[in-house]
Amino acid sequence: MSSMVIPVDPFDLVIFGGTGDLAMRKLLPALFRRDADGQIPATARILGLARTDQDTESFKAEARAALHKHVAVDELDSIALERFIERLSYLHIDVTDARAWGELVSYLNERPEHIRVYYLAVGPALFGPIAQGLAQVGLATTKARLVVEKPLGHDLASAMTLNRELSSVFNEKSIYRIDHYLGKETVQNLMALRFANALFEPLWNANRIDHVQITASESLGVGTRGSYYDTAGAIRDMVQNHLVQLLCLLAMEPPYKFDADALRDEKLKVLRSLRPITGRNVLTNTVRGQYLAHGPDAPSYLQEVGNPDSKTESYVAIKAEIDNWRWSGVPFYLRTGKKLRAQMTEIAVVFKEPAHSVFGDLETPSMPNVLSIRLQPDEGLQLVIMTKDPGPGGFRLRAIPLDMTFAEGRGSNWRMPDAYERLLMDVVRGNQTLFMRGDEVEAAWRWIDPIIEAWEASGLRPEGYDPGSRGPIAAVEMMARDGRRWREIEV
Description:
The protein is an alpha/beta fold and 491 residues long. The chain has helices at 21-36, 56-70, 78-85, 102-109, 127-136, 156-167, 185-195, 226-251, 260-273, 281-285, 301-305, 406-410, 419-429, 438-458, 473-481, and strands at 11-16, 45-50, 88-92, 115-120, 144-148, 175-177, 209-217, 286-291, 315-321, 331-337, 344-351, 370-376, 380-388, 397-405, 463-465.
Protein backbone atom coordinates (compact mmCIF):
# COMPACT_ATOMS: atom_id res chain seq x y z
CA MET A 1 0.00 0.00 0.00
CA SER A 2 1.39 3.43 -0.93
CA SER A 3 0.43 6.94 0.19
CA MET A 4 -1.17 9.34 -2.28
CA VAL A 5 1.11 12.27 -3.13
CA ILE A 6 -0.69 15.49 -4.04
CA PRO A 7 1.65 18.25 -5.33
CA VAL A 8 1.41 21.66 -3.70
CA ASP A 9 1.32 25.02 -5.46
CA PRO A 10 4.60 26.78 -6.42
CA PHE A 11 6.25 28.47 -3.45
CA ASP A 12 9.36 30.23 -2.20
CA LEU A 13 10.47 29.08 1.25
CA VAL A 14 12.80 31.43 3.14
CA ILE A 15 14.51 29.86 6.16
CA PHE A 16 15.73 32.53 8.58
CA GLY A 17 18.52 30.76 10.42
CA GLY A 18 19.18 28.63 7.35
CA THR A 19 22.58 27.42 8.56
CA GLY A 20 21.34 26.37 12.01
CA ASP A 21 20.75 22.94 13.50
CA LEU A 22 16.99 22.91 12.92
CA ALA A 23 17.37 23.76 9.24
CA MET A 24 20.10 21.21 8.58
CA ARG A 25 18.78 18.39 10.77
CA LYS A 26 15.02 18.66 10.17
CA LEU A 27 13.82 21.18 7.60
CA LEU A 28 16.07 20.42 4.63
CA PRO A 29 15.77 16.60 5.02
CA ALA A 30 11.97 16.94 5.22
CA LEU A 31 11.85 19.14 2.12
CA PHE A 32 14.18 16.78 0.25
CA ARG A 33 11.90 13.80 0.95
CA ARG A 34 8.85 15.72 -0.24
CA ASP A 35 10.73 16.72 -3.37
CA ALA A 36 11.90 13.14 -3.99
CA ASP A 37 8.28 11.96 -3.74
CA GLY A 38 7.19 14.50 -6.37
CA GLN A 39 5.20 16.77 -4.08
CA ILE A 40 7.21 19.95 -4.68
CA PRO A 41 6.65 21.65 -8.07
CA ALA A 42 9.53 22.31 -10.41
CA THR A 43 9.59 26.10 -9.92
CA ALA A 44 9.65 26.05 -6.11
CA ARG A 45 12.71 27.61 -4.47
CA ILE A 46 14.34 27.35 -1.03
CA LEU A 47 16.42 30.20 0.32
CA GLY A 48 18.68 29.93 3.34
CA LEU A 49 19.22 33.19 5.11
CA ALA A 50 21.66 33.80 8.01
CA ARG A 51 24.44 35.98 9.37
CA THR A 52 27.08 33.45 8.31
CA ASP A 53 29.28 35.07 5.67
CA GLN A 54 29.24 32.53 2.84
CA ASP A 55 27.88 32.15 -0.68
CA THR A 56 25.30 29.88 -2.27
CA GLU A 57 27.80 27.24 -3.33
CA SER A 58 29.17 26.77 0.19
CA PHE A 59 25.58 26.64 1.53
CA LYS A 60 24.75 23.93 -1.01
CA ALA A 61 27.80 21.95 0.10
CA GLU A 62 26.72 22.28 3.73
CA ALA A 63 23.19 21.18 2.83
CA ARG A 64 24.46 18.19 0.84
CA ALA A 65 26.55 17.07 3.83
CA ALA A 66 23.55 17.44 6.13
CA LEU A 67 21.37 15.32 3.84
CA HIS A 68 23.98 12.58 3.72
CA LYS A 69 24.05 12.64 7.52
CA HIS A 70 20.32 12.79 8.26
CA VAL A 71 18.72 10.89 5.36
CA ALA A 72 19.04 7.14 4.95
CA VAL A 73 21.40 6.01 2.18
CA ASP A 74 18.66 4.13 0.32
CA GLU A 75 16.62 7.36 0.08
CA LEU A 76 19.43 9.46 -1.40
CA ASP A 77 18.79 8.92 -5.07
CA SER A 78 21.51 10.91 -6.84
CA ILE A 79 19.16 12.50 -9.39
CA ALA A 80 16.66 13.56 -6.72
CA LEU A 81 19.47 14.88 -4.53
CA GLU A 82 20.98 17.08 -7.24
CA ARG A 83 17.56 18.35 -8.29
CA PHE A 84 16.89 19.39 -4.71
CA ILE A 85 20.30 20.99 -4.22
CA GLU A 86 19.70 23.13 -7.31
CA ARG A 87 16.61 24.60 -5.63
CA LEU A 88 18.78 26.09 -2.89
CA SER A 89 20.12 29.63 -2.67
CA TYR A 90 21.69 31.61 0.13
CA LEU A 91 21.78 35.21 1.31
CA HIS A 92 24.09 36.62 3.98
CA ILE A 93 21.93 39.07 5.92
CA ASP A 94 21.72 40.73 9.31
CA VAL A 95 17.98 41.08 9.92
CA THR A 96 18.57 43.85 12.47
CA ASP A 97 20.02 46.06 9.70
CA ALA A 98 17.20 47.65 7.68
CA ARG A 99 19.57 48.23 4.73
CA ALA A 100 20.23 44.51 4.34
CA TRP A 101 16.79 43.48 3.08
CA GLY A 102 17.16 44.65 -0.52
CA GLU A 103 18.54 41.37 -1.92
CA LEU A 104 15.70 39.38 -0.34
CA VAL A 105 13.13 41.71 -1.89
CA SER A 106 14.74 41.34 -5.32
CA TYR A 107 14.91 37.54 -4.97
CA LEU A 108 11.24 37.15 -4.03
CA ASN A 109 9.94 39.69 -6.53
CA GLU A 110 11.35 37.58 -9.36
CA ARG A 111 8.33 35.31 -8.87
CA PRO A 112 5.55 37.41 -7.34
CA GLU A 113 2.96 34.72 -8.10
CA HIS A 114 4.59 32.24 -5.71
CA ILE A 115 3.29 31.52 -2.22
CA ARG A 116 5.83 32.85 0.27
CA VAL A 117 6.74 30.94 3.42
CA TYR A 118 8.96 32.61 6.02
CA TYR A 119 10.26 30.03 8.47
CA LEU A 120 11.78 31.61 11.58
CA ALA A 121 14.31 28.97 12.67
CA VAL A 122 15.92 31.53 14.97
CA GLY A 123 15.73 32.56 18.62
CA PRO A 124 12.40 34.06 19.77
CA ALA A 125 14.05 37.44 20.40
CA LEU A 126 14.23 37.84 16.59
CA PHE A 127 10.60 36.89 15.83
CA GLY A 128 9.28 40.42 16.26
CA PRO A 129 12.12 42.23 14.46
CA ILE A 130 11.92 39.85 11.48
CA ALA A 131 8.15 40.27 11.19
CA GLN A 132 8.57 44.05 11.32
CA GLY A 133 11.38 43.91 8.79
CA LEU A 134 9.25 41.92 6.35
CA ALA A 135 6.46 44.48 6.69
CA GLN A 136 8.74 47.47 6.19
CA VAL A 137 10.03 46.17 2.84
CA GLY A 138 6.60 45.08 1.60
CA LEU A 139 7.06 41.30 1.94
CA ALA A 140 4.20 40.66 4.36
CA THR A 141 1.76 40.03 1.52
CA THR A 142 -1.55 38.17 1.47
CA LYS A 143 0.23 35.16 -0.06
CA ALA A 144 2.80 35.03 2.74
CA ARG A 145 2.82 32.61 5.69
CA LEU A 146 4.93 33.11 8.81
CA VAL A 147 6.12 29.97 10.66
CA VAL A 148 7.41 30.24 14.24
CA GLU A 149 8.91 27.52 16.45
CA LYS A 150 8.82 27.24 20.23
CA PRO A 151 9.52 28.71 22.66
CA LEU A 152 6.41 30.83 22.14
CA GLY A 153 7.05 32.97 25.16
CA HIS A 154 8.63 32.28 28.55
CA ASP A 155 5.40 32.95 30.44
CA LEU A 156 1.96 34.43 29.78
CA ALA A 157 3.16 38.03 29.63
CA SER A 158 5.89 37.32 27.07
CA ALA A 159 3.54 35.10 25.02
CA MET A 160 1.00 37.92 24.84
CA THR A 161 3.73 40.36 23.81
CA LEU A 162 4.90 37.99 21.07
CA ASN A 163 1.34 37.52 19.79
CA ARG A 164 0.89 41.30 19.60
CA GLU A 165 4.16 41.71 17.70
CA LEU A 166 3.27 39.05 15.14
CA SER A 167 -0.38 40.04 14.72
CA SER A 168 0.59 43.68 14.14
CA VAL A 169 2.11 42.51 10.84
CA PHE A 170 0.44 39.22 9.88
CA ASN A 171 -3.18 38.15 10.06
CA GLU A 172 -3.78 35.24 12.46
CA LYS A 173 -4.62 33.04 9.46
CA SER A 174 -1.12 33.67 8.11
CA ILE A 175 0.71 32.71 11.35
CA TYR A 176 1.71 29.06 11.78
CA ARG A 177 2.87 28.20 15.32
CA ILE A 178 4.47 24.85 14.76
CA ASP A 179 4.50 21.94 17.23
CA HIS A 180 6.12 18.95 15.55
CA TYR A 181 4.26 16.55 17.87
CA LEU A 182 1.02 17.48 16.09
CA GLY A 183 2.50 16.40 12.75
CA LYS A 184 3.09 12.83 13.88
CA GLU A 185 0.93 10.22 12.18
CA THR A 186 -0.20 8.73 15.48
CA VAL A 187 -1.48 12.07 16.76
CA GLN A 188 -3.53 12.52 13.62
CA ASN A 189 -4.73 8.94 13.96
CA LEU A 190 -5.98 9.81 17.43
CA MET A 191 -8.54 12.08 15.78
CA ALA A 192 -9.43 9.38 13.24
CA LEU A 193 -9.73 6.82 16.04
CA ARG A 194 -12.20 8.96 17.95
CA PHE A 195 -14.24 10.58 15.21
CA ALA A 196 -14.17 8.08 12.30
CA ASN A 197 -15.23 5.05 14.35
CA ALA A 198 -18.38 4.30 16.27
CA LEU A 199 -16.53 2.06 18.73
CA PHE A 200 -14.71 4.46 21.07
CA GLU A 201 -16.65 7.72 21.28
CA PRO A 202 -19.48 6.27 23.47
CA LEU A 203 -16.76 5.08 25.90
CA TRP A 204 -14.75 8.33 25.82
CA ASN A 205 -15.91 9.81 29.14
CA ALA A 206 -15.76 9.56 32.92
CA ASN A 207 -18.27 6.69 32.98
CA ARG A 208 -15.84 4.30 31.27
CA ILE A 209 -12.33 5.76 31.61
CA ASP A 210 -10.45 5.50 34.91
CA HIS A 211 -7.49 7.72 34.07
CA VAL A 212 -5.10 8.78 31.30
CA GLN A 213 -1.30 8.80 31.26
CA ILE A 214 0.73 10.90 28.82
CA THR A 215 4.46 10.15 28.88
CA ALA A 216 7.35 11.70 26.97
CA SER A 217 10.57 10.19 28.27
CA GLU A 218 14.06 10.81 26.91
CA SER A 219 17.12 8.68 27.49
CA LEU A 220 19.64 11.48 26.86
CA GLY A 221 20.54 14.48 29.02
CA VAL A 222 20.47 18.16 28.10
CA GLY A 223 23.76 17.87 26.18
CA THR A 224 24.64 21.02 24.26
CA ARG A 225 21.26 22.64 25.05
CA GLY A 226 22.24 23.32 28.66
CA SER A 227 22.29 27.13 28.47
CA TYR A 228 18.76 27.23 26.98
CA TYR A 229 17.35 24.36 29.00
CA ASP A 230 18.37 25.81 32.38
CA THR A 231 16.18 28.85 31.66
CA ALA A 232 13.25 26.72 30.53
CA GLY A 233 13.15 23.35 32.27
CA ALA A 234 10.94 20.41 31.44
CA ILE A 235 7.69 22.25 32.10
CA ARG A 236 8.39 25.01 29.56
CA ASP A 237 10.28 22.81 27.09
CA MET A 238 7.79 19.92 26.96
CA VAL A 239 4.65 20.31 29.09
CA GLN A 240 3.36 23.75 28.11
CA ASN A 241 3.35 22.84 24.42
CA HIS A 242 3.71 19.16 23.50
CA LEU A 243 2.01 17.38 26.40
CA VAL A 244 -0.75 19.94 26.85
CA GLN A 245 -1.52 19.75 23.12
CA LEU A 246 -1.80 15.95 23.33
CA LEU A 247 -4.12 16.31 26.32
CA CYS A 248 -6.32 18.72 24.34
CA LEU A 249 -6.63 16.39 21.33
CA LEU A 250 -7.48 13.50 23.63
CA ALA A 251 -10.02 15.35 25.75
CA MET A 252 -11.71 17.77 23.32
CA GLU A 253 -15.31 17.51 22.17
CA PRO A 254 -15.94 16.53 18.53
CA PRO A 255 -15.61 19.63 16.32
CA TYR A 256 -18.57 20.38 14.09
CA LYS A 257 -16.31 19.67 11.11
CA PHE A 258 -12.66 18.84 10.42
CA ASP A 259 -11.63 22.45 10.07
CA ALA A 260 -8.69 24.35 11.57
CA ASP A 261 -10.67 26.85 13.64
CA ALA A 262 -13.39 24.38 14.59
CA LEU A 263 -10.78 21.98 15.95
CA ARG A 264 -8.82 24.70 17.72
CA ASP A 265 -12.01 26.09 19.28
CA GLU A 266 -12.54 22.71 20.96
CA LYS A 267 -8.93 22.51 22.15
CA LEU A 268 -9.28 25.98 23.66
CA LYS A 269 -12.33 24.83 25.65
CA VAL A 270 -10.23 22.05 27.19
CA LEU A 271 -7.47 24.49 28.15
CA ARG A 272 -9.99 26.78 29.81
CA SER A 273 -11.48 23.81 31.68
CA LEU A 274 -8.19 22.69 33.24
CA ARG A 275 -8.45 22.97 37.01
CA PRO A 276 -5.88 25.50 38.28
CA ILE A 277 -3.02 24.02 40.31
CA THR A 278 -2.04 26.66 42.85
CA GLY A 279 -0.65 27.07 46.35
CA ARG A 280 -0.22 23.88 48.37
CA ASN A 281 -1.94 21.83 45.64
CA VAL A 282 1.27 22.21 43.66
CA LEU A 283 3.13 20.15 46.29
CA THR A 284 0.66 17.24 46.02
CA ASN A 285 -0.22 17.37 42.30
CA THR A 286 3.22 18.01 40.78
CA VAL A 287 6.70 16.53 41.11
CA ARG A 288 10.04 17.97 39.96
CA GLY A 289 13.28 16.10 39.53
CA GLN A 290 16.90 16.46 38.38
CA TYR A 291 19.01 13.56 37.15
CA LEU A 292 22.07 12.66 39.17
CA ALA A 293 25.56 11.70 38.01
CA HIS A 294 26.34 8.11 37.06
CA GLY A 295 30.09 7.72 36.96
CA PRO A 296 32.74 10.07 35.53
CA ASP A 297 31.40 9.82 31.97
CA ALA A 298 27.76 10.52 32.88
CA PRO A 299 27.54 13.96 34.54
CA SER A 300 24.57 15.16 36.56
CA TYR A 301 22.12 17.78 35.35
CA LEU A 302 23.87 20.41 37.48
CA GLN A 303 27.23 19.52 35.93
CA GLU A 304 25.90 19.52 32.36
CA VAL A 305 24.33 22.98 32.66
CA GLY A 306 27.31 24.31 34.63
CA ASN A 307 25.13 25.72 37.40
CA PRO A 308 25.53 24.00 40.80
CA ASP A 309 22.73 26.09 42.32
CA SER A 310 20.15 25.42 39.60
CA LYS A 311 16.60 24.58 40.69
CA THR A 312 15.49 23.92 37.12
CA GLU A 313 13.77 20.57 36.64
CA SER A 314 14.84 17.92 34.12
CA TYR A 315 11.75 15.87 35.07
CA VAL A 316 8.19 16.89 35.83
CA ALA A 317 5.03 14.94 36.63
CA ILE A 318 1.63 16.60 36.91
CA LYS A 319 -1.82 15.37 37.89
CA ALA A 320 -4.18 17.44 35.72
CA GLU A 321 -7.96 17.50 36.05
CA ILE A 322 -10.58 18.84 33.63
CA ASP A 323 -13.65 20.44 35.12
CA ASN A 324 -16.36 19.59 32.61
CA TRP A 325 -19.15 17.02 32.23
CA ARG A 326 -17.19 14.57 30.11
CA TRP A 327 -14.08 14.32 32.27
CA SER A 328 -15.14 15.14 35.83
CA GLY A 329 -13.21 12.84 38.18
CA VAL A 330 -10.79 11.49 35.53
CA PRO A 331 -7.16 12.45 36.27
CA PHE A 332 -4.74 13.05 33.41
CA TYR A 333 -1.20 12.22 34.55
CA LEU A 334 1.52 13.98 32.55
CA ARG A 335 5.22 13.17 32.89
CA THR A 336 8.35 13.98 30.96
CA GLY A 337 12.01 13.78 31.78
CA LYS A 338 15.55 13.40 30.56
CA LYS A 339 17.94 10.50 31.20
CA LEU A 340 15.10 8.10 31.89
CA ARG A 341 15.00 4.38 31.11
CA ALA A 342 14.12 4.70 27.41
CA GLN A 343 13.15 7.09 24.63
CA MET A 344 9.35 6.79 24.50
CA THR A 345 6.28 8.93 23.92
CA GLU A 346 2.92 7.35 24.68
CA ILE A 347 -0.68 8.16 25.51
CA ALA A 348 -2.37 5.44 27.58
CA VAL A 349 -6.12 5.49 28.12
CA VAL A 350 -6.89 3.17 31.04
CA PHE A 351 -10.51 2.03 31.15
CA LYS A 352 -12.43 1.12 34.27
CA GLU A 353 -12.76 -2.54 35.15
CA PRO A 354 -16.16 -4.26 34.76
CA ALA A 355 -18.64 -3.29 37.49
CA HIS A 356 -18.91 -6.93 38.55
CA SER A 357 -16.57 -9.84 37.74
CA VAL A 358 -18.11 -13.27 37.22
CA PHE A 359 -14.57 -14.72 37.33
CA GLY A 360 -13.91 -13.91 40.97
CA ASP A 361 -12.59 -17.37 41.89
CA LEU A 362 -10.02 -17.59 39.11
CA GLU A 363 -6.35 -17.62 40.00
CA THR A 364 -5.51 -15.03 37.34
CA PRO A 365 -7.04 -11.61 38.12
CA SER A 366 -8.49 -9.49 35.37
CA MET A 367 -6.73 -6.35 34.18
CA PRO A 368 -8.25 -3.10 32.89
CA ASN A 369 -8.46 -2.55 29.17
CA VAL A 370 -5.80 -0.09 28.00
CA LEU A 371 -5.67 1.79 24.72
CA SER A 372 -2.03 2.71 24.09
CA ILE A 373 -1.22 5.31 21.44
CA ARG A 374 2.54 5.20 20.76
CA LEU A 375 4.20 8.23 19.16
CA GLN A 376 7.76 6.95 19.37
CA PRO A 377 9.41 4.57 18.77
CA ASP A 378 7.35 2.33 16.43
CA GLU A 379 4.32 4.57 16.01
CA GLY A 380 1.07 2.70 16.35
CA LEU A 381 -1.98 1.76 18.40
CA GLN A 382 -2.45 -1.10 20.83
CA LEU A 383 -5.58 -2.19 22.70
CA VAL A 384 -5.14 -4.62 25.60
CA ILE A 385 -8.16 -6.87 26.15
CA MET A 386 -8.83 -9.85 28.42
CA THR A 387 -9.20 -13.26 26.76
CA LYS A 388 -9.22 -16.89 27.85
CA ASP A 389 -5.78 -18.47 27.90
CA PRO A 390 -5.86 -21.17 25.17
CA GLY A 391 -5.59 -24.83 26.16
CA PRO A 392 -7.45 -27.58 28.08
CA GLY A 393 -5.91 -26.82 31.47
CA GLY A 394 -8.85 -24.89 32.90
CA PHE A 395 -10.26 -21.41 32.54
CA ARG A 396 -7.62 -18.73 32.99
CA LEU A 397 -7.71 -15.10 31.90
CA ARG A 398 -4.93 -13.53 29.90
CA ALA A 399 -4.28 -9.95 28.76
CA ILE A 400 -3.73 -9.89 24.98
CA PRO A 401 -2.71 -6.81 22.96
CA LEU A 402 -4.42 -6.07 19.66
CA ASP A 403 -1.51 -4.38 17.91
CA MET A 404 -1.45 -2.04 14.92
CA THR A 405 2.08 -0.82 14.29
CA PHE A 406 1.85 1.49 11.30
CA ALA A 407 5.09 0.38 9.64
CA GLU A 408 4.00 -3.27 9.78
CA GLY A 409 0.58 -2.43 8.38
CA ARG A 410 2.14 -0.65 5.39
CA GLY A 411 4.73 -3.25 4.48
CA SER A 412 8.49 -3.47 4.61
CA ASN A 413 9.14 -0.78 1.96
CA TRP A 414 7.05 1.89 3.64
CA ARG A 415 8.71 4.74 5.55
CA MET A 416 7.01 6.67 8.35
CA PRO A 417 7.04 10.33 7.22
CA ASP A 418 8.73 12.78 9.55
CA ALA A 419 6.34 15.24 11.19
CA TYR A 420 8.02 18.20 9.48
CA GLU A 421 7.24 16.75 6.06
CA ARG A 422 3.51 16.98 6.71
CA LEU A 423 3.64 20.30 8.53
CA LEU A 424 5.74 22.10 5.90
CA MET A 425 3.40 21.01 3.12
CA ASP A 426 0.39 22.06 5.22
CA VAL A 427 1.90 25.55 5.52
CA VAL A 428 2.15 25.81 1.74
CA ARG A 429 -1.42 24.53 1.39
CA GLY A 430 -2.65 27.09 3.92
CA ASN A 431 -4.00 24.37 6.22
CA GLN A 432 -3.72 25.43 9.89
CA THR A 433 -5.42 22.36 11.41
CA LEU A 434 -2.23 21.03 13.01
CA PHE A 435 -0.93 24.42 14.19
CA MET A 436 -1.60 26.35 17.40
CA ARG A 437 -3.63 29.52 17.49
CA GLY A 438 -2.51 32.51 19.56
CA ASP A 439 -5.28 32.19 22.14
CA GLU A 440 -4.37 28.51 22.66
CA VAL A 441 -0.80 29.44 23.52
CA GLU A 442 -1.95 32.06 25.99
CA ALA A 443 -4.49 29.72 27.62
CA ALA A 444 -1.79 27.07 28.14
CA TRP A 445 0.45 29.63 29.82
CA ARG A 446 -2.41 30.72 32.11
CA TRP A 447 -2.50 27.16 33.46
CA ILE A 448 1.27 26.69 33.62
CA ASP A 449 2.31 30.03 35.16
CA PRO A 450 0.82 29.44 38.65
CA ILE A 451 2.61 26.07 38.87
CA ILE A 452 5.98 27.68 38.13
CA GLU A 453 5.25 30.55 40.53
CA ALA A 454 4.38 28.11 43.35
CA TRP A 455 7.58 26.13 42.72
CA GLU A 456 9.65 29.29 42.95
CA ALA A 457 7.82 30.48 46.08
CA SER A 458 8.40 27.14 47.83
CA GLY A 459 12.19 27.41 47.51
CA LEU A 460 12.37 23.60 47.28
CA ARG A 461 14.94 21.91 45.08
CA PRO A 462 13.92 19.23 42.55
CA GLU A 463 14.30 15.65 43.81
CA GLY A 464 17.31 13.76 42.48
CA TYR A 465 16.81 10.60 40.44
CA ASP A 466 19.15 8.01 38.97
CA PRO A 467 19.84 8.02 35.23
CA GLY A 468 18.12 5.09 33.52
CA SER A 469 15.35 4.99 36.12
CA ARG A 470 11.64 5.85 35.93
CA GLY A 471 12.25 9.18 37.64
CA PRO A 472 11.85 10.53 41.18
CA ILE A 473 10.31 8.39 43.94
CA ALA A 474 7.87 11.24 44.66
CA ALA A 475 6.23 10.69 41.25
CA VAL A 476 5.58 7.04 42.14
CA GLU A 477 4.14 8.14 45.49
CA MET A 478 1.87 10.70 43.79
CA MET A 479 0.26 7.90 41.77
CA ALA A 480 0.18 5.52 44.75
CA ARG A 481 -1.87 8.01 46.77
CA ASP A 482 -4.55 7.63 44.08
CA GLY A 483 -4.27 3.82 44.10
CA ARG A 484 -2.63 3.81 40.67
CA ARG A 485 0.81 3.23 39.18
CA TRP A 486 2.74 4.53 36.22
CA ARG A 487 3.09 2.39 33.14
CA GLU A 488 6.56 1.06 32.45
CA ILE A 489 8.94 3.17 30.40
CA GLU A 490 10.23 0.77 27.80
CA VAL A 491 10.91 0.51 24.10
